[in-house]
Write a structure and sequence with these properties.
This protein is an alpha+beta fold and 262 residues long. 40% of the residues lie in helices and 27% in strands.
């Protein structure tokens, strides 16, 4: 019994170590998204476009300056190859600024987001309301025309005269995040999930419906919690991001512990 308890403690310590590794890798990915959004917000050409009175006197410069910004965005695209999609939405002009090009809002939505998981009105509210919800589950359309689930980082630019001026949208595909987990020595029979501060599921290696009953609110992260889902029993561990309000969850089938203990 004592040796079994010692082995169980060793397994828990090993899993805690892997959970820390998981957090470190994921924090790096999400930090990249925030850093790109920060770069977009402090780009001098973007700030001039959003806040200066230049175009009252030089209206013909507007579209040339738009072009210049899209060229800057192309440089960011090269610098952040791990980002799958990003753009700046201009609320007043209803334009999307992307690397190398810009698009009118409705056309850009059709190209990049048209899917029942993100209806046009929901997307429009997201980019025009002036809110900054941070990390949220979302969807994008790939160059092949395939809807792909993503994690989006959404951050509005500061208001001007009480009105929203623009919003940054930065996205990483869920498959890219899961791929990063797969490269780690992480629970070859276990599962991972990531939640935002509202407990919305961002990423999971399990089907979303299978996590519907997970009592996330009652999990403190101090110690693993056992969770029964039908015939399956998991040991669930929760750790908070070191940099954001995200929560990282691992689910290890209880049977693995007994296999190792035998």
């Amino acid at each position: 019994f004592q040796s079994s308890r010692m082995l169980e403690n060793e397994i828990h310590e090993a899993n805690d170590s892997l959970l820390e590794q998981f957090r470190s890798v994921m924090d790096g990915r999400f930090a990249d998204m925030k850093r790109l959004s920060f770069e977009l917000g402090w780009n001098l050409k973007v700030r001039q476009l959003l806040y200066s009175n230049k175009y009252l006197n030089y209206p013909n410069d507007f579209y040339y300056d738009l072009y210049q910004i899209t060229q800057d965005l192309n440089v960011y695209k090269t610098s952040f190859p791990q980002i799958d999609l990003f753009y700046i939405y201009l609320a007043k002009e209803k334009l999307m600024l992307l690397p190398n090009l810009y698009r009118e809002a409705a056309f850009g939505y059709q190209l990049l987001h048209a899917d029942q998981a993100l209806p046009f009105e929901s997307w429009k509210w997201l980019v025009e309301s002036g809110g900054s919800p941070g990390f949220i589950p979302s969807v994008r359309i790939t160059e092949d025309g395939v809807p792909t689930k993503t994690v989006a980082y959404v951050a509005a630019h500061p208001y001007d005269n009480g009105l929203p001026v623009g919003t940054n949208i930065v996205m990483i595909d869920r498959s890219r995040i899961i791929g990063a987990v797969d490269k780690m020595e992480l629970f070859n029979k276990g599962h991972v999930a990531i939640y935002n501060e509202k407990n919305e599921l961002l990423v999971s290696s399990l089907d979303e419906s299978m996590l519907a009953g997970l009592p996330l609110a009652g999990m403190t992260g101090d110690k693993p919690t056992f969770w029964q889902d039908g015939e399956r029993r998991f040991e669930v561990s929760v750790i908070r991001s070191a940099d954001t309000n995200l929560k990282y969850v691992t689910l290890i089938p209880s049977g693995i512990f007994w296999e190792k203990a035998q």
